[in-house]
């Protein structure tokens, strides 16, 4: 069976790897300029250009994923269901769910009445309710919206901002590569005169 969440996880992992790559390769750029080393500057500019190409591919996948709203909703729904299913045994999931429900003022996957938000004692998680009702959180006092819908609204509202940040990072990388190439050429021309 195809896992709709796989593509979403792949995007996350891909973005993290690209970010770590940029941080590591920045070392080559700094050392290349400081030591006036042509090899390091060439490596730096080449890797930056490769990362820009990778980020363009990532952006294309992200646009396709966000464009396929039903696919994205299914992925989010499956991840939320898995987290709610494991909330009793996984403290990390419980913390994430609590923070998410508080931030988005939501409860459960689709609504507070769904079985995912209900704890074994019949109460809801404290974060399903406003702070004044948290100690006795029941369906009647819980947030009415499900978390899946709230996350989708957040993504739809902030997708342009996220895209703008990604474009700005790509432009900065291209500028960095151009500067590295210019510095490299300057060093090469100075070495030719000596």
UniProtKB/TrEMBL annotation:
Keywords for this protein: Disulfide bond, Membrane, Transmembrane, Transmembrane helix
UniProt-listed SUPFAM superfamilies: Tetraspanin
InterPro entries in the cross-refs: Tetraspanin/Peripherin, Tetraspanin_animals, Tetraspanin_EC2_sf
Location(s), subcellular: Membrane
One Pfam match: Tetraspanin
Keyword Transmembrane: yes
Gene3D superfamilies xref list: Tetraspanin (1.10.1450.10)
Residue intervals passing through the bilayer: 13-34, 46-66, 161-183
Highest rank taxon of the organism: Eukaryota
Topological type in the membrane: Multi-pass membrane protein
GO CC aspect terms: plasma membrane
S-S pairs: 106-147, 107-129
Similarity remark: Belongs to the tetraspanin (TM4SF) family.
The protein's name in its UniProt record: Tetraspanin
UniProt organism field: Callosobruchus maculatus (Southern cowpea weevil)
């Amino acid at each position: 069976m195809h896992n709709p969440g796989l593509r979403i996880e792949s995007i996350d992992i891909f973005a993290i790897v690209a970010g770590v790559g940029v941080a590591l390769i920045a070392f080559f750029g700094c050392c290349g300029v400081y030591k006036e080393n042509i090899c390091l500057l060439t490596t730096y500019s080449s890797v930056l250009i490769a990362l820009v190409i990778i980020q363009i591919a990532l952006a294309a996948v992200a646009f396709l994923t966000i464009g396929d709203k039903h696919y994205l909703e299914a992925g989010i729904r499956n991840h939320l269901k898995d987290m709610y299913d494991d909330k009793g045994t996984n403290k990390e999931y419980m913390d994430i769910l609590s923070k998410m429900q508080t931030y988005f003022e939501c409860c459960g996957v689709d609504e507070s009445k769904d079985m995912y938000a209900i704890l074994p004692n019949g109460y809801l998680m404290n974060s399903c309710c406003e702070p004044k009702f948290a100690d006795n959180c029941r369906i009647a006092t819980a947030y009415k919206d499900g978390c899946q819908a709230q996350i989708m609204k957040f993504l739809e509202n902030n997708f342009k901002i996220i895209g703008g940040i990604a474009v700005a990072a790509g432009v900065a990388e291209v500028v960095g590569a151009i500067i590295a190439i210019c510095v490299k050429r300057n060093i090469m021309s100075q070495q030719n005169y000596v």
